[in-house]
Amino acid sequence: MNATIIDAINDALHAEMRNDDRTLVFGQDVAESGGVFRATDGLLAAFGSDRVLDTPLSEIAIVGSAVGLATHGFRPIAEIQFSGFLPPAFDQLVTNASRIRWRTRGELTAPMVVRTPYGAGVRALEHHSESLEGAYGHVPGLTVAIPSTPHDAKGMLISAIRDPDPVLFMEPKHVYRSLREDIPEGAYTEPLGEAAIRREGDDVTVVSWGAMMHKTLEAVDNLDGVDAEVIDLRTISPLDRETITESVRKTGRCVVVHEAAKTGGFAGELVATINDEVLLYLEAPIERVTGFDIPVPLLSMEDYYVPHPPRIEEAITKTVSY
Question: Which residue of the set 14, 72, 127, 128 is catalytic?
Answer without folding.
Answer: 128
